Amino acid sequence: QVQLVESGGGLVQAGGSLRLSCAASGSILSIRVMAWYRQAPGKQRELVARITSGGRINYADSVRGRFTISRDNAKNTVYLQMNSLKPEDTAVYYCNADIVTRWSNDDYWGQGTQVTVSS
């Protein structure tokens, strides 16, 4: 059984910073892609940033230059450093990973962590 556990959300003032972490555990052989998505109230879930096992990175235009995604392959962990936060960054942030186990290759999601940016 594979689990993704997120941490690091919270309440911060505009202009502040937060760092999210997501650790994958279980019978993992490899993790191809790790990503962060977010969903604001009344809006669709959107991709924030993604990183491949080889280190290739993509960002949403709305966060490029403010957010940094990184991963520690030895720890099966992905991070999202969020700087210069804006009220429009308020959302539930979800970790996503494309994981290969002995039995399958599936997409997994974390439970979500709330990020609230006050103006």
Query: Major sheet, described briefly?
Result: 7 strands, mixed
The outline comes out as elongated
Percentage of β-strand residues:
over 45%
Our count of helices gives 0
Structural class: mainly beta
- Estimate percent helicity: under 10%
Please state the CA-atom Rg, rounded to the nearest Å: 14 Å
Q: How would you state the average pLDDT, rounded?
A: 97
Q: Would you report the number of β strands? A: 11
Please report the distance between the alpha carbons of the first and last residues. 41 Å
Order of helices and strands: EEEEEEEEEEE
Q: Unreliable stretches, pLDDT < 50, 5 or more residues?
A: none
Describe this structure in words.
With 119 residues, this protein is mainly β. 0% of the residues lie in helices and 61% in strands. It has no helices and 11 strands. Strands 2, 4, 5, 6, 9, 10 and 11 form a 7-stranded mixed sheet that branches. Strands 1-3-8-7 form a 4-stranded antiparallel sheet, with no helix packed on it. Strand 9 and strand 10 form a beta hairpin. The model has no long low-confidence stretch (mean pLDDT 97).
Features of this protein?
119 residues, mainly beta, seven-stranded mixed sheet, 11 strands, 61% strand
Lay out the secondary structure:
Blueprint: E1 3-7, E2 10-13, E3 18-25, E4 28-39, E5 46-52, E6 57-59, E7 67-72, E8 77-82, E9 91-101, E10 105-109, E11 113-118
Parallel strand pairs: 2-11
Antiparallel strand pairs: 1-3, 3-8, 4-5, 4-9, 5-6, 7-8, 9-10, 9-11
